[in-house]
Structures are given as structure tokens and as C-alpha cells.
Specification:
The chain is α/β, with parallel strands linked by helices and 353 residues long. It contains eleven helices and eight strands. An eight-stranded mixed sheet has the order 3-2-1-4-5-6-7-8, with helices on both faces. The longest helix has 27 residues. The N and C termini lie far apart (54 Å).
Length: 353
């Protein structure tokens, strides 16, 4: 049903685009092809979400004294993650652009009766490396340890725009900003983890990674920009990085685990402006996961005792799942990691000069 709806929406969207857009028809058709691939991948994920609904659950163990850092935790999936982390009595550091929105969220959570945990809301714009550095410096100064890092903030299907550092915005926010943040907080994570209770890095990836290709020759999509392709690349990059980071920590003997998490196809404002939400908003409300259900696998990876030892996994519906063949390519993981270090002029990952 949802697949049929998707194809109808895409067909309508293509007709509208060809009629109204100044883009060449060839590019519009290429974008439509990408949307069809997304429809197939998304439909598969929706079916899996329904099939695995009984397994998409996690315990919320007491984590008094532990510190979790989350980016963009003021709305959607991130807000629900914050709510659950506070139920675990964690100290939660929220890095966000709109601190007022963060404060309103916490007031709402407290009004709902969740009184455990502490919160600190700090300014952070993940699209800006300067902002990431300021945020990380504040975290390192204020907290002796960091036990959990959740790289949650993200953007999707936006028009072409460059960050202040010259990166295509989706790859800049979804991947580069979080790569830098992990680099800057890694020493704290190393200090926190112990055998049997390792520190955890959570990267929010997506089923969209299956459509992704890492374009080393045009990493910032300047030659030909398709928002769907750029988003898929950013999510594949997150997954490749997550896998490589876990491998690196294991080989170096540090008690730090890294997870990539697919929250599911979730009804959040990331879909605002898409054809499917404009034309058939009822389909999204009916078929997609709620933000609360989308947050569950993220929290599972962050705090569940059952996730201990599963580092390097791609988590979907609270279970390890095999990602794409491309995401499992160890040589590609290393190539992207070194490529990113060079772009950012980082001499040694995790060592802050």
C-alpha cells in the first residue's frame, strides 16, 4: 500500500517539477529515479518496523552519576531520547541551536512527572566547526567524564547550501560536525569506559545509507546536486565512520563502543516539504513510527545492558542488523576516515592539540 502511494506521489511530483522547475528534465528524471529507490528502501523498512514491533523495546536502567551528551535533542526523536535518558537518572547535556526550545522541553518533561536526572542546555550549531569546538571545550571543562555521546542532530532533503566551512550542508551537519565532536570528546569517553561498562558513541544513521555512494571526487556535491543523493551519502558516511571508530577503539584496547542506529521511518519534521507529506500527510501519520518509537533503538544502544559488546553494530528495532555491503567495506571505512582527517587537518583522531 505505502509503496503504491509512494510511486503515485513521485509521479505527481515529477510532473509538477517538469512543469514548474528550471532544472533540465534529465536532472528531474534522475532525481525521480533516486526517489523510487528511496521508496523501495523505505517500504522495506516500514515492513520491518511493523514486523519487529514487539522487539522494539528497551529497559531504562539506573545510570546515576553518568553523563550523556546529545546533539539537537529539543524536538522529534532527540526530545524523546532526552526524556528516556532522564528516566535513567543521567546527567544530560543537550547541544542545540535554540536553547529556549530546550528549556521548554525540559519544563514539559518535568510537568509530566519525570523528576530524575539533571540537564544542561548549551549552544551548539553542528554545521559550524567553530561552534562544535566551543561546545566540546565547555563539556570538557564542566564534566570530568563523558559516558555516552549521541550524535543525533541532522537535516534531510534540503536545497543546496554550504556551511561556513565550505561543506555541503547535509554532509556538513550529519557527518562532518559529528566527526569533529567525537574527535574532541573521545579522550573523555576513553577515561569513562571500563570493562563491562564501556562508553558508547551513538551515530544516528538511516536505511537511506543503502542508496548512498561516497563521492570522493565531489564530496560536497558541487558538480551535480541532488538532495536525496547528498543525504544518502551523509548517512552512509556516518555508518562507515561508526564502524571504523569501533574497530579502532577495539584494536587500541580502549573501552569505547560505537553504534550506528536506524531509528526507523519516523514521522518528524524532517519530512516537512517532501511530496509525500504535502500530498498524503495521512499516510505518514498512519504508517510511520512515532518519534517515541523511533527513539527506542537509540536509547537501547545508549544504555541497555543487552547492547554491551555489540559495538560496531547497525541497530534497527533494538537488534543488530546487517547494513549494506558498501557500509561493511573495511577498506572504504578506512579510506573515508583518512580522507576526512585530511580535509579537517586533524593529525591524530582523539588527540586535541
Amino acid at each position: 500500500m505505502i509503496l503504491l502511494i509512494s510511486f503515485i506521489v513521485i509521479a505527481i511530483g515529477v510532473c509538477i517539477a517538469i512543469y514548474k522547475s528550471e532544472k533540465p528534465a534529465k536532472q528531474i528524471l534522475a532525481e525521480a529515479k533516486f526517489e523510487i529507490i528511496y521508496a523501495l528502501i523505505g517500504s522495506k523498512s516500514l515492513f520491518e518496523d511493523i514486523w519487529m514491533i514487539g522487539r522494539n523495546k528497551t529497559e531504562l536502567p539506573n545510570k546515576t552519576g553518568k553523563v550523556a551528551v546529545i546533539t539537537g535533542g529539543t524536538k522529534g526523536i532527540g526530545a524523546e531520547v532526552v526524556r528516556m535518558l532522564l528516566e535513567c537518572d543521567l546527567t544530560v547535556v543537550i547541544g542545540c541551536r535554540n536553547q529556549e526550545a530546550g528549556q521548554l522541553l525540559i519544563e514539559k518533561i518535568r510537568e509530566e512527572g519525570i523528576l530524575t536526572g539533571d540537564v544542561n542546555i548549551l549552544p551548539l550549531d553542528v554545521s559550524s566547526i567553530a561552534s562544535v569546538k566551543k561546545f566540546a571545550n565547555r563539556v570538557c571543562n564542566d564534566y570530568p567524564t563523558v559516558d555516552i555521546l549521541i550524535n543525533n542532530a541532522g537535516i534531510m532533503y534540503v536545497p543546496f547550501e554550504e556551511t561556513e566551512d565550505g561543506f555541503e550542508s547535509q554532509v556538513g551537519v550529519n557527518y562532518i560536525g559529528h566527526f569533529v565532536l567525537t574527535h574532541l570528546l573521545l579522550e573523555k569517553l576513553k577515561q569513562s569506559g571500563v570493562e563491562g561498562a564501556k562508553s558508547r558513541v551513538i551515530n544516528l544513521s538511516s536505511i537511506a545509507h543503502e542508496a548512498g555512494i561516497v563521492s570522493f571526487d565531489d564530496f560536497n556535491s558541487k558538480n551535480e546536486y541532488m538532495s536525496f543523493a547528498a543525504y544518502a551519502q551523509s548517512k552512509l558516511a556516518q555508518l562507515l565512520f561508526s564502524n571504523y571508530l569501533n574497530k579502532m577503539m577495539k584494536e587500541e584496547g580502549f573501552n569505547v563502543e560505537s553504534f550506528a542506529v536506524h531509528p526507523g521511518v519516523v514521522n518528524t519534521d524532517l519530512f516537512d516539504g517532501t511530496y509525500i507529506k504535502k500530498i498524503t500527510p495521512w499516510a505518514i501519520a498512519f504508517f510511520f513510527k512515532s518519534p517515541e518509537k523511533g527513539a527506542v533503538p537509540v536509547v537501547f544502544a545508549a544504555v541497555s545492558p543487552k547492547a554491551e559488546g555489540l559495538g560496531g553494530s547497525y541497530i534497527s528495532n533494538c537488534e543488530p542488523k546487517s547494513p549494506s555491503k558498501t557500509a561493511r567495506d573495511v577498506e572504504l571505512q578506512e579510506k573515508l576516515f583518512n580522507f576526512t582527517l585530511k580535509m579537517l587537518n586533524i593529525k591524530e583522531f582523539g588527540k586535541v592539540e
